[in-house]
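Try this one yourself first.
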């Protein structure tokens, strides 16, 4: 539908004004290119596909041609509002005292499940920025930045899985507060069992220790498995058969006797080999021992399995793919800071089921 609009220009400021835009609820500054309804549909599709495919879909489904520039501006404006809303929530929480006052400031949106899992991880994506290439001092290369991603997931009484997500480029403490806020919204404070599962990374530990002290901590099984495989490959470089045999034995100890069993196996292996192996291989074994030793209390996998706990990172990995990999890491993609945060915020709104509520807040008008 094409509507001819009368346009007036202020003789003082030079700004243009279209009276009919207010009647159609068109946001100021968009030139009337897209209505709110079409913008909402276009941005919903943009969380699942790149702009090239989006343009094709808009043409096929709505018989509308929209330029890359218009879509990019639209995405950054609306996604920027979603990101600003998230930051405003955190700013408000930071004014509250830790404890009851802060807890009461969060509106619980969901009934508490029987068991709740909280997880976080980081995933890198390509940016529009450059950094010096360490292999060629005369060249620059694409700079990658880390997006922190968190998820809260649980099963309902019919054993169906549900999850909510959050993502940001904030530091670990601010991101941790965001993840805590999401968990409280999902009913964490009244949940009988809360489990925090992640890899052994430094900032993940900070989040767990700062905001989820009372949760049961589990070191992701697959993350520890990767360390075991990495050690095996260094012990038997170029020999996949020998590597596989060593890893199989080590993982059997881990499976049957948890982290303590694996640690005992590694220590016995180091003692038995003595001076018969090179210094590099001794350091390799010792490095795995040093990694595992302080984490024994979060590697009780035998007990975890008996209680039916999730011990792997499958839900977290799928969340990273949904939020970052599928949309921010496509062929040839490069993102500005603002653009990456905007599209990630929109993806989060869709996954969390808050898309209708978000659009009721009139984000296009707020962005104008």
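Now uncover the answer:
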């Amino acid at each position: 539908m094409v509507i001819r609009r009368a346009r007036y220009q202020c003789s003082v400021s030079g700004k243009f004004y279209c009276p009919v835009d207010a009647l159609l609820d068109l946001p100021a500054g968009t030139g009337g290119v897209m209505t709110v309804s079409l913008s909402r549909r276009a941005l919903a599709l943009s969380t699942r596909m790149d702009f090239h495919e989006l343009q094709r879909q808009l043409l096929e489904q709505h018989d509308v041609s929209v330029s890359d520039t218009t879509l990019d501006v639209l995405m950054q404006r609306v996604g920027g509002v979603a990101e600003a809303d998230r930051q405003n929530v955190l700013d408000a929480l930071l004014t509250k005292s830790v404890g009851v006052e802060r807890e009461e400031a969060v509106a619980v949106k969901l009934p508490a499940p029987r068991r709740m899992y909280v997880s976080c991880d980081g995933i890198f994506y390509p940016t529009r920025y450059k950094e010096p290439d360490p292999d060629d001092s005369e060249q620059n290369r694409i700079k990658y930045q880390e997006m922190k991603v968190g998820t809260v997931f649980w099963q309902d009484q019919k054993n169906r899985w549900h999850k909510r997500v959050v993502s940001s480029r904030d530091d670990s403490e601010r991101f941790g507060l965001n993840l805590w806020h999401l968990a409280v919204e999902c009913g964490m404070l009244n949940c009988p069992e809360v489990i925090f599962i992640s890899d052994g990374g430094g900032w993940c530990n900070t989040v767990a220790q700062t905001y989820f002290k009372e949760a049961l901590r589990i070191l992701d099984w697959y993350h520890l498995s990767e360390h075991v495989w990495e050690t095996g490959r260094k012990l038997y470089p170029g020999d996949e058969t020998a590597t596989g045999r060593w890893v199989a034995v080590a993982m059997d100890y881990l499976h049957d006797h948890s982290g303590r069993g694996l640690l005992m196996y590694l220590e016995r292996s180091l003692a038995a080999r003595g001076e018969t192996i090179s210094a590099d291989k001794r350091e390799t074994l010792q490095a795995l021992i040093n990694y595992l030793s302080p984490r024994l209390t979060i590697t009780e996998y035998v007990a975890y399995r008996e209680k039916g706990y999730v011990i792997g990172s499958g839900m977290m990995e799928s969340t990273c793919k949904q939020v970052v990999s599928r949309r921010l890491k496509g062929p040839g993609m490069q993102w500005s800071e603002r653009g990456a945060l905007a599209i990630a915020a929109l993806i989060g709104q869709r996954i969390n089921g808050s898309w209708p509520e978000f659009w009721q807040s009139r984000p296009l008008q707020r962005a104008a």
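Discussion: The mean pLDDT is 92. DSSP finds 15 helices and seven strands in the chain.
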